[in-house]
From TrEMBL:
Listed InterPro entries: SNase_OB-fold_sf (IPR035437), Tudor (IPR002999), Tudor_domain_containing (IPR050621), Tudor_TDRD9 (IPR047384)
Lineage start: Eukaryota, Metazoa, Chordata, Craniata, Vertebrata
Region (Disordered): 1-21
Family matches, as PANTHER family: TUDOR DOMAIN CONTAINING PROTEIN (PTHR22948)
Source species of the chain: Rousettus aegyptiacus (Egyptian fruit bat)
Protein name: Tudor domain containing 9
Domain Tudor intervals: 165-225
Length: 603
């Protein structure tokens, strides 16, 4: 059990623009910039570029001033005028040292005050990856006109086949049939298999299989417009226990419901943060004439999802966006909004320059070194039983769980790992686990499983006697001597979610149902027909799922350990309610599980 998270851009100089075929006409060029795509940029400037420049023209005119230095060093002052009003980044380029240093970065308050409207986007969903994670594109009038003109320009030309053999990451033109009409669109090859390839349409976000013979070369002028497809994730949401238990991550029913909510209609998204070029958003769909319904709230109300905290990177990005996208000029003049330091600017510029030639989509696929000996993303395990609590735990190298990495370190609830085989070294200091399974991240799962299948348990209560704080599980104690029975294997747990009297009653009902299925008395299985046995099994299964998959998630609490751990008989007998199984026969007991004793809580 344990608890536990590049940017590419191309600069187009004025001289280069004049030689472009698209710019040789009298008309103003449709696109005067190369692709700008941000990856892993945590500063406010890339966030603005990402949101503002997806569908608007972004011109970077470079003016060079060469200054000869005494030691043979040539420094170049590069002044860039971007499409962001009031943004004037300046850098010094040292060709000999191959370094780039920032001179200044300034943002006008006027631009900040106007940029807040761009946190609200109207999008159409084209590809659902999983519940809450999807691709789409903007469908506002301005963006729609750009895509329409782009498609018309592409299909007006005489296209030629690819000059090179198709390979992954190659940007090309691929056909797609829309409204019974085939047109060519910008696409990127994901992988090649035989005589076909799967391509990703970079302006819309969908993908399809295309014959290699149908892929065409993309003229260079069509690479100047940034890819218009956007990747979204619904913020502050995670799978509910029901989804985790009934599916790998999201249940099939949750996936179908989400697809029905976001498909075939325009969605309004409000940007919460930008993490690794993915927009974390609140998603709303129209219900009626003017009503907006949150997709996240619908999934939570129907039991498919539950509220969750955003990761640290997302929260940090949100705070930066709040400072950048101010609602008024007065708010922007507040000096509490931090501007990037020189080191941060150098880091930003370095990432931008390193990514100029990159046109890859999706999350970075480079290797990352995790510095040790401990890392916040790695889960550490310890034994639940008393005798092994302080033993080191090792998992066999061949196991997929040899290094358990948590993708949600902000979730602090207890996790559970089970092993089919366990061995102890000669000194007894280390346990080796084999054939392990990491249980789903259901809050309260270790306590629920322990209370469900423990022979005997004793609930812990707080000083006021108003709530349960933990449980001691094992074989109980000897009423005559007061000594625990097999204390080495007792399990003491502190609750990290709130359990109620109703939960304990449900556990007892489930234990009684199991007793009915396995007892060999006059009500045993040999006296029941197949239909009755199937009915009892289904009832037990539904009760078990109901215990884990409550419609309203259990309230999370801070674990509080009992002041006398592993000590039995710590409850006032006046507060104990004995439970009797009505199916239990007299004389020799045939029950597998005895019912747990309830402790009455104070009002």
């Amino acid at each position: 059990m344990a608890s536990s998270t590049t940017s590419s851009s191309s600069l187009s100089s004025g001289s280069a623009a004049k030689s472009s075929p698209l710019c040789s006409t009298v008309q103003k060029p449709l696109w005067s910039f190369h692709e700008t795509r941000q990856r892993d940029l945590k500063l406010f400037l890339p966030c603005i570029w990402r949101l503002r420049c997806l569908s608007s023209k972004f011109r970077l005119n470079s003016a060079f001033t060469l200054q000869r230095r005494s030691k043979g060093r040539c420094k170049e002052g590069l002044s860039r005028s971007s499409g962001i009003p009031g943004t004037v980044p300046r850098v010094n380029v040292d060709f000999q040292k191959q370094t780039v240093d920032p001179v200044q970065v300034s943002l006008s308050t006027l631009h900040r005050s106007r940029a807040v409207t761009e946190l609200l986007l109207t999008v159409d969903v084209t590809e659902v990856i999983e519940v809450g994670h999807f691709w789409g594109y903007r469908i506002d009038e301005k963006n729609s006109e750009i895509l329409k003109r782009l498609t018309a320009e592409i299909n007006r030309l005489k296209l030629v086949p690819l000059p090179v053999h198709p390979h992954p990451d190659l940007v090309c033109l691929a056909p797609f049939v829309d409204f019974d009409k085939q047109s060519y669109f910008r696409a990127q090859i994901l992988y090649v298999s035989g005589n076909s390839a799967e391509v990703f349409f970079v302006d819309y976000g969908n993908r399809c299989h295309v014959d290699l013979d149908l892929l065409m070369e993309i003229p260079c002028q069509f690479l100047e417009l940034p890819f218009q497809a956007l990747e979204f994730k619904i913020c502050k949401m995670r799978p509910s226990a029901r989804s985790l238990v009934c599916g790998e991550h999201w249940s099939g029913a949750a996936s179908q419901r989400f697809a029905a909510l976001v498909s075939g209609c325009a969605l309004l998204v409000k940007v919460f943060s930008v993490v690794h070029s993915v927009l974390h958003v609140d998603v709303y769909r129209c219900s009626g004439v003017q009503d907006l319904v949150s997709v996240r709230d619908v999934l939570i109300d129907e039991g498919y999802a539950e509220l969750a905290d955003e990761c640290y990177e997302s929260r940090q990005s949100h705070e930066v966006l709040k400072g950048v996208f101010s609602k008024s000029v007065e708010n922007v003049t507040d000096m509490s909004v931090p501007l990037p330091g020189k080191d941060e600017e150098k880091h930003l510029i370095r990432i931008l320059l390193d990514g100029f030639s990159s046109r890859k989509l999706g999350a970075p696929n480079c290797k990352v070194i995790l510095h040790g000996p401990f890392n916040p993303y790695e889960l550490k395990c310890h034994s639940l039983t008393r005798i092994s609590k302080f033993r080191s735990v090792w998992i066999e190298k061949e196991s997929i769980n040899s290094v358990i990495v948590s993708d949600s370190p902000e979730d602090l609830h207890q996790r559970m790992l089970v092993a089919a085989s366990l061995s102890v070294n000669a000194t007894g200091s280390t346990m080796l686990l084999r054939e392990t399974s990491l249980m789903p991240p259901v809050p309260g799962l270790p306590a629920l499983l322990s209370m469900l299948f423990a022979p005997v348990m004793e609930l812990r209560v707080d000083r006021a006697g108003k709530s349960y704080t933990g449980v001691l599980c094992g074989l109980g104690w000897n009423p005559t001597t007061g000594a625990p029975i097999l204390p080495e294997h007792d399990i003491e747990l502190a609750f990290d979610v709130q359990f109620s009297v109703e939960d304990i009653v449900e556990i007892n009902i489930l234990r009684a149902a199991v007793n009915k299925l396995v007892c060999d008395g006059p009500n045993g299985l040999k006296f029941l027909g197949p239909e009755r046995i199937a009915q009892l099994q289904d009832n037990s299964r539904q009760k078990l799922l109901g215990l884990f998959c409550q419609l309203k998630p259990r309230e999370r609490i801070v674990p509080k350990w009992h002041e006398k751990p592993y000590e039995w008989d710590q409850v006032d007998p006046k507060l104990v309610m004995e439970q009797a199984d009505p199916e239990g026969g007299s004389g020799k007991s045939t029950l597998l599980y005895q019912l747990h004793r309830l402790i009455v809580l104070s009002p």
